[in-house]
Amino acid sequence: MDDPMVLDANAVAGDLAELFGFEVTAVVHRCAHCGNVAAVGTLLAWTHGPGVTLRCSICREVVVRFVRTGSRTFLDVRGAAYLDMQRG
Amino acid sequence: MPEPLTWQIATVTAIRAETPQVSSFTLALPAWRAHRAGQHYDVRLTAPDGYRAQRSYSIASPPSRRGEVDLTIERIADGEVSPYFHDVVEVGDRVEVRGPIGGYFVWEPVLGGPLLLIAGGSGVVPLMAMLRERAAADGAAPAVLLSSARTLEDVIYRDELAALAAADRGLRLIQTLTRAQPPGWTGYDRRIDRPMLAEALAAAGAPPLAYICGPTLLVEAAANGLVELGVPPAQVRTERFGPTS
Question: What is the ipTM of this complex?
Answer without folding.
Answer: 0.90
